[in-house]
Amino acid sequence: MHILEHLFLVGEFPERARLLSGLTLEQVTLVPDGATHSIYEELWHVVAYQESIIGSGDPDGDRFPSAAPEHEHQWHDLVQKFLDGARVAAALGQEPERLALEVEPGQTLADELNCVAVHNAYHLGKIVALRQRIGAWPPMAASSGS
Fold it and tell me: What is the pLDDT of residue 119?
């Protein structure tokens, strides 16, 4: 396993797909007392930043969503978008020549991906803390009878 797969998808704390699983629309839009953002808003921010580096996102775009999702599928779509982007970032670990390219003077793509991984970890930690505050942690184990 390349370090980027470890950082973006599976290492250091729960696998990202599991960390984001088992949440309802009500849970992801709740902003508990004292919190500044909902789980949805935290992940939306992560996706926007991640895409600004590895995808076609706008580096100067909105930092957080302007509205809460109205349908649960919007949450699931956002989770999928995050995981897809994380897989793209992890796959770049298999392209050392591309990682070595300077994207800005003195900064390589590998440097930028490391920054994204740290940023993601910070906000995913906030998501875990929010889940704990609303009683939705740990994620329920997947049922084998479905």
Answer: 96
